[in-house]
Each structure stands twice: as structure tokens, then as C-alpha cells.
């Protein structure tokens, strides 16, 4: 595959600004793969990156950094030590590559790498600590890539990075999901995919809680046994009624709404578990005494991990996930500013907003 010297890329400007410019195509190290990006998508983390609130130190210099951590494409070149992929392979990437030398990485918790952000020790997170996929080409550590089955297109592949987050949320439970009751708070992409994964893992009943009727309808179509609108029902009472009065075994909090944590606590059964999946924009005050008095465990995850993306790809390859209903908009890379505005304003019920980076 012929690789040009320069490429179109989206770069982070001042707070709230993202635009495109020509940059050199990245050179790859021996253990890296050059990916020609076909599709990328926006998520809430990208909005925080655009605002620069994501960076505690203010972030990189304006117009030097390429965001984007949800993307898929084709292998354009491989490093000297790479034999896992060949040019032309269709791949999807996960963002995190741990240092693989700290105690957390050695036990598989590379999304919690103790050397986070330290490139000198081998850590990288695409689109967050190193340049990402809002560009025609991106350099990826070989360990972050998964080959795509022929029946998984690029739109679906990009959504699978979010499925990887959901899979990782169930990883931290350290128990079988089959037969467990699961409540999912927040019918955004993570929550809607959480419904599907819970169903595929054998959970019952699966309950979805939110405020947007259109998204709740999608959740019902994805297999939620019960959908509950917080504006129309006492959702805590409804979850308890659906579980024999005990509450849900597992609650996934995917909304990132501060009040939702207390709601999650109230609907979790004694000795149940809450997994915090959504990111919060502000500090949260909750009634932790309720958790202590009822033996409720709180866990959290940050993105994909423990090889969860590869397992999400496997599920999709088996035809066991529906993703296309979530893809609502497409924009060319040159229109990335408009794509962000559509996503943040939820224009036309925007859910997953895609960037068509290359043909």
C-alpha cells in the first residue's frame, strides 16, 4: 500500500476549538502498525478533550495534538518486529496500551497503568496521551489492534470499542452474569450496548432506566425486559418490584449524572454491586452509609481492558450484537467542528456520530 508523506488530521486548538490541517504521516517503530483510518467516532471524552478540561496541566500546545480514540481502518504498514498483521488487514483499535512493566499491567489492569502518560516507560493512550485517530493515518502499538471478521463493517467496528467498555464493566464483577438481575442507568451508547451484552451473558431480568423515550425504545428493541422513564415512574420501586422486592444484583451506572449514584444505591440489593461506567463532570455526593449498611460494593472501569475489545469483536462476528441503530450521523473529517456540534447538541437524536476519514 502506497503511503503518502502528509495527511489530513484534526487538531486540538484553544479550548473549544478543533479544526483540520496537513501533518506528516507518522513514522512507526518496530512494534507498531500504521493504520489508515476509515472510520472514527465521537464520544463524551472527546468533548472534554476539546474543552481542554480533560488535561490537568492544560494539555498539549494548540494545533499540535490529534484526538480520537474510537476508530477502525486498514493496515498500511507494519514495523520490523510485527508478524501478527499484514498490509491490508482490516482492524479496530482500543485506546489503552499500558507500560507492561508496573504491577497493575502485569496483572492485566493496563487501563490502570501506574505509569499513565509516561511515554518513556511505554505507556500510551491513543487520542489522549498520544496522537489518535481523527486523522488519515495513525501509529498504533501492535497490542492495541484486533483483526475484524469479514461480516463486521467499519461502522460496527468503531461501536465495538464502546462494547469493549461494557465487557470490561462486567469483567470487574468476578462472577457469572447468567441468572443475575441487571439494571442499566443511562440509555446512551454505553447503556444501550450494556443491555445487549447483559442479555447475551444470560442476565435476567435486564432493566433500562433513562429519560429519553426514543432511546428507551431502542433499549427495548435491544432486549431490555423492562424500560423505565425516570420522569414517569418511581424507578427504584419498579426495579425492586421486578426483582421480588430485593433490588438488582448488578447496577451499571452509565449516565454520569451525579444524582444517579444515589438512585443506583437505592435499587441495588443487599450485597449487590454497582459498576460506575459513566464519567462525571463534577464531584458527586452520595449516601455511602447506605452502601456500608447493606454491603453494597462499588466498582469502576475506565474504557476497555483485559482484552475486552477482542471479545466484543467475537460477539459481533457471531452476529450477536446490533450496532447500526446507534449510528445516526456521518460527517467528512473536514467537517469535524460540525460533527462535534451535532453530537453535543444531540441534534436529530444524535447517538454515535461518525467521521468518514478515508474511503
Query: How many beta-strand elements?
Result: 17
Largest sheet: 7 strands, mixed
Radius of gyration, in Å, reads 20 Å
Shape: globular
Low-confidence stretches: none
Proportion of strand residues = 25-35%
Number of domain units: 2
- Tell me the CATH superfamily of the largest domain: Medium-chain alcohol dehydrogenases, catalytic domain
CATH topology of the largest domain: Quinone Oxidoreductase, Chain A, domain 1
Helix residue percentage: 25-40%
| SSE pattern | EEEHEEEHEEEHEHEHEHEHEHEHEHE
Structural class determined from secondary elements: alpha/beta
Measured between the Cα atoms of the first and last residue, the distance is 14 Å
- Mean pLDDT over the full residue set: 95
Q: At the first level of CATH, what is the class of the largest domain?
A: Alpha Beta
Written description of the protein model:
By secondary structure, the protein is of the alpha/beta class. The chain folds into 2 domains: 208 residues, Medium-chain alcohol dehydrogenases, catalytic domain (Quinone Oxidoreductase, Chain A, domain 1, Alpha-Beta Complex); 128 residues, Rossmann fold. Strand 16, helix 10 and strand 17 form a beta-alpha-beta unit. The radius of gyration is 20 Å and the shape is globular. The two termini are 14 Å apart.
How is the topology of this model organized?
Layout: E1 6-12, E2 18-24, E3 32-41, H1 44-51, E4 71-78, E5 90-93, E6 96-97, H2 103-106, E7 124-125, E8 137-141, E9 145-147, H3 154-171, E10 182-185, H4 189-200, E11 206-210, H5 213-221, E12 226-229, H6 235-242, E13 248-253, H7 258-267, E14 268-276, H8 288-294, E15 297-300, H9 308-317, E16 327-332, H10 336-345, E17 352-356
Parallel strand pairs: 10-11, 10-13, 11-12, 13-14, 14-15, 16-17
Antiparallel strand pairs: 1-2, 3-4, 3-8, 3-17, 4-5, 5-9, 6-7
Helix pairs in contact: 3-4, 3-9, 4-5, 6-7
Amino acid at each position: 500500500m502506497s503511503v503518502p508523506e502528509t495527511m489530513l488530521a484534526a487538531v486540538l486548538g484553544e479550548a473549544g476549538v478543533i479544526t483540520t490541517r496537513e501533518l506528516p504521516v507518522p513514522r512507526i517503530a518496530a512494534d507498531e502498525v500504521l493504520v489508515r483510518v476509515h472510520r472514527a467516532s465521537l464520544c463524551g471524552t472527546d468533548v472534554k478533550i476539546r474543552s481542554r478540561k480533560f488535561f490537568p496541566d492544560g494539555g498539549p500546545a494548540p494545533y499540535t495534538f490529534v484526538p480520537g480514540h474510537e476508530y477502525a481502518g486498514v493496515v498500511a504498514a507494519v514495523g520490523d518486529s510485527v508478524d501478527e498483521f499484514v498490509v491490508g488487514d482490516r482492524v479496530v483499535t482500543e485506546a489503552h496500551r499500558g507500560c507492561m512493566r508496573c504491577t497493575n499491567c502485569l496483572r492485566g489492569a493496563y487501563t490502570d497503568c501506574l505509569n499513565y502518560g509516561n511515554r518513556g516507560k511505554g505507556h500510551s493512550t491513543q487520542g489522549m496521551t498520544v496522537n489518535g485517530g481523527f486523522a488519515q493515518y495513525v501509529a498504533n502499538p501492535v497490542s492495541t489492534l484486533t483483526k475484524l471478521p469479514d461480516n463486521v463493517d467499519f461502522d460496527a467496528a468503531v461501536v465495538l470499542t464502546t462494547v469493549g467498555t461494557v465487557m470490561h464493566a462486567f469483567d470487574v464483577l468476578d462472577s457469572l452474569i447468567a441468572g443475575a438481575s441487571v439494571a442499566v442507568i443511562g440509555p446512551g451508547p454505553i447503556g444501550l450496548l450494556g443491555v445487549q451484552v447483559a442479555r447475551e451473558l444470560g442476565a435476567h431480568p435486564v432493566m433500562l432506566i433513562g429519560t429519553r423515550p426514543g432511546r428507551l425504545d431502542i433499549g427495548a428493541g435491544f432486549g431490555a425486559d423492562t424500560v423505565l422513564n425516570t420522569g414517569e415512574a418511581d424507578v427504584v420501586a419498579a426495579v425492586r418490584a421486578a426483582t421480588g422486592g430485593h433490588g438488582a444484583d448488578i447496577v451499571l451506572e452509565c449516565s454520569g449524572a451525579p444524582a444517579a449514584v444515589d438512585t443506583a444505591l437505592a435499587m441495588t440489593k443487599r450485597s449487590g454491586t454497582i459498576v460506575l461506567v459513566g464519567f462525571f463532570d463534577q464531584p458527586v455526593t452520595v449516601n455511602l452509609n447506605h452502601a456500608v449498611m447493606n454491603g453494597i460494593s462499588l466498582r469502576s472501569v475506565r474504557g476497555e481492558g483485559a482484552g475486552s475489545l477482542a471479545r466484543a469483536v467475537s460477539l459481533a462476528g457471531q452476529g450477536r450484537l446490533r450496532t447500526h441503530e446507534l449510528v445516526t450521523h456521518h460527517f467528512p473529517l473536514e467537517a469535524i467542528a460540525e460533527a462535534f456540534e451535532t453530537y453535543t447538541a444531540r441534534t436529530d437524536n444524535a447517538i454515535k456520530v461518525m467521521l468518514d476519514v478515508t474511503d
